[in-house]
Design a protein that fits this description.
The chain has about 450 residues and is α/β, with parallel strands linked by helices. Helices cover about 35% and strands about 20% of the residues. The longest helix is centred in the middle third of the chain and has 16 residues, at about 285-300. One of its GO terms (cellular component) is cytoplasm.
């Protein structure tokens, strides 16, 4: 029995659904619910963007912005909460106190997916790239598929407007927090590092448990793909029963099933299939992307995609915008936009993949960063650090003794200008901030776009 039925006595309409938050996931949930016969009310405490407001009006969905009408919200049988809204939100607390069920958009989407398959990818780092690569492989193979979830297009809206046979979904911990029955046919957990701890009472174990919600409802016919080299993942699995149909991937050892790299060869062994490919043929470079490619390769074999199609897709994939994106070469200096690196581990992966002397642009809103994991790479690869943020004290303290030049800037244009002065022919200028962006920018996309515009203006 779902929570709509359980809470029916609180409202004469058994399908009165309130959606909190009117961004991509909230709008998608509202549209799907409306088309499935729910009475829907959308409430956003901030201003709703014009294009989202138009979608609500076009679909005849009642909404409010800039406020929360408590009586209307607390009359709901069920609430869909946008992933950006934390549990400590005052309205969320009132909903919980009244015993009204709260679900995520992906849970609502799951109810109406029909017989379609879900490939769900989560992890602290690399999930957007891995999700996009799997989607690219599926498209190359001619499968009827959609790219959905945290990567930018609402899962619920896709089901409402153009259902597919396969959904390749990037799933965040926030989305997994409010699932009930959601499960993936193929679930991929890339890695777990400390991130978003402000949302998890600063307890790493709470964040870890959230990630493992990915397999909470796993059935015997589902597959679980995980990184055998990730210490946090393996520590958790050592205290839990490993699910059936588990497929690990590793760079450190040959495996009975799954994927591994020995020397320059990737090997995949799954479902009595064997697949081999040189890492030099991967379109994606860097150690972290070898992990992404192994995970994507296993999923593709499980989907019975032909080897030649997997090989073709892996060699033709184009990297995502704002993720190790080559912007331009200016007087022999390469400019790279990795604005999506909003935590220290992402920046580690970025630096690890570079072979050139580097001017590193760091900074923004610090989320409790521990910069010690970057020390060895900074010592060996970084010529100078250009800080891009309002408060750069922590960066100066962490690297002041090991980098000869650290300067402060407060705009993308100034950061690019100073980096250009510090760089020489053959160097790289890498924007990989290791921090959130909202001190100086709207989001990481805005930061990356301003960086690219500044480079092109040189």
């Amino acid at each position: 029995m779902n929570s709509v039925q359980q809470n029916s006595e609180t409202n004469t309409n058994k399908h009165y659904l309130v959606v909190l938050g009117a961004a991509e996931s909230g709008i998608g949930a509202a549209i799907l619910a409306k088309r499935k016969g729910y009475t829907v009310f959308v409430s956003d405490g901030s201003t709703i963007k014009p294009h989202y407001k138009k979608e609500l009006i076009d679909n005849n969905i009642e909404f409010e912005e800039g406020t929360h009408t408590e009586a209307k919200i607390l009359a709901a049988n069920e609430v869909v909460k946008s992933p950006g809204i934390p549990e400590k939100n005052a309205m969320v607390k009132k909903i919980r106190e009244k015993g009204i069920g709260i679900i995520s958009e992906i849970e609502l989407a799951y109810r109406f997916k029909g017989d379609s398959k879900i490939i769900a990818i989560t992890g602290s780092n690399g999930k957007s790239t891995c999700t996009s690569l799997i989607y690219h492989i599926c498209k190359t193979a001619g499968l009827d598929c959609a790219l959905v979830g945290n990567i930018g297009y609402s899962f619920a809206k896709q089901i409402a407007e153009e259902p597919k046979e396969i959904y390749v979904a990037e799933i965040s911990s926030f989305q997994l927090d409010d699932i009930q029955h959601f499960r993936a046919d193929i679930g991929i957990l890339l890695n777990i590092t400390e991130d978003h701890l402000d949302r998890y009472d600063y307890k790493f174990e709470n964040y870890i448990n959230s990630k493992f919600n990915l397999i909470r409802n796993k059935q015997s016919t589902d597959y679980f793909i995980y990184c055998k080299d990730d210490e946090v993942t393996m520590q958790y699995l050592s205290n839990h029963i490993l699910p059936t149909n588990s497929m690990p991937f590793s760079m450190n050892q040959e495996l009975q099933n799954g994927a591994w790299i020995i020397g320059d060869q990737m090997m995949i062994k799954a479902l009595d299939e064997k697949f081999e490919m040189s890492i030099y043929d991967f379109a994606l470079k860097g150690k972290h992307n070898q992990y992404n490619t192994m995970a994507a390769g296993i999923a593709s074999v499980i989907l019975n995609i032909r080897k030649e199609k997997i090989r073709e897709a892996v060699t033709t994939f184009k990297n995502l915008e704002h993720r190790m994106e080559h912007v331009a070469d200016v007087r022999g200096i390469e400019f790279i936009n990795d604005s999506k690196a909003t935590n220290v581990n992402s920046t580690w992966y970025a630096l690890e993949s570079l072979e050139k002397p580097t001017i590193l642009i760091l900074g923004g809103v610090d989320k409790g960063n521990d910069y010690t994991i970057l020390e060895e790479l900074v010592k060996t690869k970084v010529k100078a650090i250009v800080c891009l943020g309002i408060d750069n004290t922590k960066i100066h303290a962490a690297f002041g003794a090991m980098v000869p030049v650290i300067i402060d800037t407060d705009s993308a244009a100034l950061a690019v200008e100073e980096s250009f002065k510090l760089a020489a022919k053959g160097d790289a200028v890498l924007l990989s901030p290791a921090c959130a962006s909202f001190d100086l920018f709207k989001n990481y996309e805005d930061r990356g776009t301003q960086f690219k515009e500044a480079v092109k203006a040189l």
